[in-house]
């Protein structure tokens, strides 16, 4: 019995070692999103291409959609753009753009030059919607279900890997859910 | 003594350095000095979500700038600390708090040091008790034994 007691420090050490070792493989950049499971924050913002037309959070309801935060000043967004173009051509779900802290002219020019994968573009010039969405850098991508609830958030450029492994299965599942509820 | 003086002066320097670093770059005008004090200390306790090793004041990233301005404004609007912290955590998660909340996920974090301290004290106590017992045994030489011991020692001296 006494000898067993002597092993307690070793056990504690091993336990702590395993705990800390696991920490080595966590990605410190990946923050858990506080917004998953919550509705898209209420907003009413101008359309990028047309200042007299407004888009609100209500417009996102009714079908599963993807929200993509982008800007012309963001190099990773440029890297992501060709993939978004390909995605848009597949017509799986609408992709809404949130043009984040950008200049209207520059953003429109960029879309004209590189192609426009977005169903509609929300012009978030002062970053207020971004702030409410907990955006800490562009690009970020949100999957929103047909009730306007944020179901998943991905920070960083999306590519074929993350799309086919995580995002697409989720979109398919949410679309099935929507169908079950008889929405689309 | 000298080492102690060096350590004390080092600590003081570090303390002053952290206080000086608190000057923000923004030119935000607070409604009152009191508001400014409260807003700055709040912004100090919140982590920048972009550059994760800095608080909202130390960081120059656009997100941190926005957020600290938001904090300043909310303080001036008369919002309570809890409301402001809540505003931040609903958007960025508990991650932004330098001082984590007390809930089931953080019990180990908050209680761990005290548990370790208790274990340490317990081990120390057991150790000290054992030593004391050992000393008592040493002193427990009976008169007869002592006499015998003296005799032996004396005999050794004679020869």
TrEMBL record, chain A:
Keywords: Cytochrome c-type biogenesis, Disulfide bond, Redox-active center. Residues 34-176 form the Thioredoxin domain. It is a single-pass membrane protein. It is found in: Cell inner membrane. InterPro entries: Periplasmic_diS_OxRdtase_DsbE, Redoxin, Thioredoxin-like_sf, Thioredoxin_CS, Thioredoxin_domain, Thioredoxin_ResA/DsbE_sf. Belongs to the thioredoxin family. DsbE subfamily. This is DsbE family thiol:disulfide interchange protein. It comes from Shewanella maritima.
From TrEMBL, chain B:
The chain crosses the membrane at residues 107-128. Residues 1-21 form the signal peptide. Gene3D superfamilies: Cytochrome C biogenesis protein. GO terms for molecular function: lyase activity; metal ion binding. One of its GO terms (cellular component) is plasma membrane. The keyword Signal applies. Residues 12-153 form the CcmH/CycL/Ccl2/NrfF N-terminal domain. GO terms for biological process: cytochrome complex assembly. InterPro entries: C-type_cytochrome_biogenesis, CcmH/CycL/Ccl2/NrfF_N, CcmH/CycL/NrfF/Ccl2_sf, For-dep_Cytc_NO2Rdtase_NrfF. Keywords: Heme, Iron, Lyase, Membrane, Metal-binding, Signal, Transmembrane, Transmembrane helix. It comes from the Bacteria. PANTHER family: CYTOCHROME C-TYPE BIOGENESIS PROTEIN CCMH (PTHR47870), FORMATE-DEPENDENT NITRITE REDUCTASE COMPLEX SUBUNIT NRFF (PTHR47870:SF2). Belongs to the CcmH/CycL/Ccl2/NrfF family. Possible subunit of a heme lyase. This is Formate-dependent nitrite reductase complex subunit. The lineage of its organism: Bacteria, Pseudomonadati, Pseudomonadota, Gammaproteobacteria, Alteromonadales.
